[in-house]
Amino acid sequence: xxxxxxxxxxxxxxxxxxxxxxxxxxxxxxxxxxxxxxxxxxxxxxxxxxxxxxxxxxxxxxxxxxxxxxxxxxxxxxxxxxxxxxxxxxxxxxxxxxxxxxxxxxxxxxxxxxxxxxxxxxxxxxxxxxxxxxxxxxxxxxxxxxxxxxxxxxxxxxxxxxxxxxxxxxxxxxxxxxxxxxxxxxxxxxxxxxxxxxxxxxxxxxxxxxxxxxxxxxxxxxxxxxxxxxxxxxxxxxxxxxxxxxxxxxxxxxxxxxxxxxxxxxxxxxxxxxxxxxxxxxxxxxxxxxxxxxxxxxxxxxxxxxxxxxxxxxxxxxxxxxxxxxxxxxxxxxxxxxxxxxxxxxxxxxxxxxxxxxxxxxxxxxxxxxxxxxxxxxxxxxxxxxxxxxxxxxxxxxxxxxxxxxxxxxxxxxxxxxxxxxxxxxxxxxxxxxxxxxxxxxxxxxxxxxxxxxxxxxxxxxxxxxxxxxxxxxxxxxxxxxxxxxxxxxxxxxxxxxxxxxxxxxxxxxxxxxxxxxxxxxxxxxxxxxxxxxxxxxxxxxxxxxxxxxxxxxxxxxxxxxxxxxxxxxxxxxxxxxxxxxxxxxxxxxxxxxxxxxxxxxxxxxxxxxxxxxxxxxxxxxxxxxxxxxxxxxxxxxxxxxxxxxxxxxxxxxxxxxxxxxxxxxxxxxxxxxxxxxxxx
Length: 681
Ligand code: ADP
Ligand code: ZN
Ligand code: ZN
Hints:
Layout lengths: L3 E6 L8 E5 L12 E6 L2 E11 L14 E2 L8 H13 L4 H5 L13 H12 L16 H11 L5 E7 L5 H18 L5 E5 L6 H11 L5 E4 L5 H12 L5 E4 L11 E6 L17 H12 L2 E6 L4 H8 L4 E5 L11 E6 L9 E2 L2 E2 H13 L2 E5 L8 E4 L16 E3 L4 E3 L6 E3 L12 E4 L3 H11 L5 E4 L9 H10 L5 E4 L12 E6 L13 H13 L15 E6 L5 H7 L3 H15 L6 E9 L2 H13 L7 E2 L3 E8 L2 E10 L2 H17 L5 E6 L5
Parallel strand pairs: 6-11, 6-12, 7-9, 7-10, 8-9, 10-11, 13-25, 16-23, 16-24, 22-23, 24-25
Antiparallel strand pairs: 1-2, 1-4, 3-4, 3-5, 14-15, 17-21, 18-19, 19-20, 26-29, 26-30, 27-29, 28-29
This protein binds adenosine-5'-diphosphate (ADP) and zinc ion (2 copies).
Adenosine-5'-diphosphate (ADP) binds next to helix 5.
């Protein structure tokens, strides 16, 4: 056989593919979708074969030869390659930068020992013969209606499972999974189901539920917390079709799933589905695309759907299935109360930011042997250290941000660039030794509560307290076992957890989001408050009729957002927000892309963006002025951005493609990146 040309995608921003020569080797026939080891520059790297031909535009003598093909593993499917090609095209990145980083590192290494080991393990693993679910509870009527409707779906049909917190959406998912696996087994077909959750911390709970329900089925888990060996094993189980159920965080949407028949996206509104660096994709949106490509159903679950999804429901593109009540008999949605911090009389007594009303409610829970959760989205002890006598504050020297006080470690730490230093003994400007922490972080709330309730068992869960692998899981387990009276946490504790004995949620400092310049802030705050409120009162009410309670400390008790939260009225709130968005021509009625630039000097970044504007000549596109980002400086780099908008997605896409060729040709030292459908503006 003749030597052939392999077209190979590599993980580099340079190009879409590179040609390599393939010298025939006995018994190895390269195929599209296989990985190949190739020389690249001065190193060897693994790329993906995306095409083959007899000819190349590169002269033969300049072509390098591919070194090996990973023929021991099944090639990635044409459908998977199409998914990557779509994502590359839509998010304006080279194919290799989309396809390769999503693969386990061990697959992209030069050695194949771990690959061979993973394949051997899979070959020895038991077959998934038994897809029968065990111990499935009887669904309530609303759940049954929803599950039946999902079971009846055929072909591409996005469904919004709109269910209040605690309405038992997970049960509906598991029934949908059971139905799909049983149907495929009856038809003698292989089937795979993909379930996405927004947070890595939610995977153990779901994983345990799924494995208990389907003891005869291989389950694979994909998230960023896996060790490389595990990651390869799980990825390969999905890729070979061995795993029938695959669950994971956003990165799982790029997994190879040759027999995918159903996708479930839990908490579809969650901002974590958007990747915020590199390929800035939305896993929710890619889930929809994948379901469309394969003509399979996709279920989006949420108590507070994203406005994008809600709009699709209004327009009839997505079907809505509703669960209006909590699943557990006698469990009801908690009562939401506001604690007015500005009221003149009787004024709320504050102890380090904690109101007397809230503290009394916590005390009552301790007396009754119930749990409380205090939610504050700010880790550390205090967000800033301040000198009363000269006005010095702990600014980060490298960012436009404050250094956060971490009292126990005796450090000031910047949460944006990671810079840290010891707490100064005195004011760096005037020498005053009495420096004051301003405001509250989770550590300070913990300290305050411990002083007020010395007998209480208090646990803080935030990024600082859970750095060690497995420590978050241990902490959540302790809460579930009832070893904690007061739980203090950031958004890590707000989502999805099914705490059984928690009857009070206190929200400490939500007001800042009310006045954000980001038009999405109120949508997000509403979702966050409903989510955290949803952690309370999930079990049956006690006979004494003490209902679960949510208390929000605020200076703006008359804000309409809080009225909507109190009424648990997402429908109305979403309707009003959509009207506002329609009038203001914001998404989902407008499509956006954001060009970001970073440079040592703000001026350079802005100049680059102005030059980028100058090459736009397209009447369909609205180009806004380049502006510094809200937090302009991070790690000694100034950042600016430019928003472009268009009423048509295809028109925006066509424009971006053309614009990118201009931008790539611009000679600049400024670092820039383009984000399609940006979520933080
Ligand atoms: P959601 O995801 O909608 O917030 P979950 O799926 O976590 O709610 O379910 C909330 C609680 O209701 C869980 O403790 C679950 O075990 C329970 N539950 C769900 N469905 C039923 C049912 N049909 N009968 C009894 N309990 C149920
Ligand atoms: Zn001072
Ligand atoms: Zn910094």
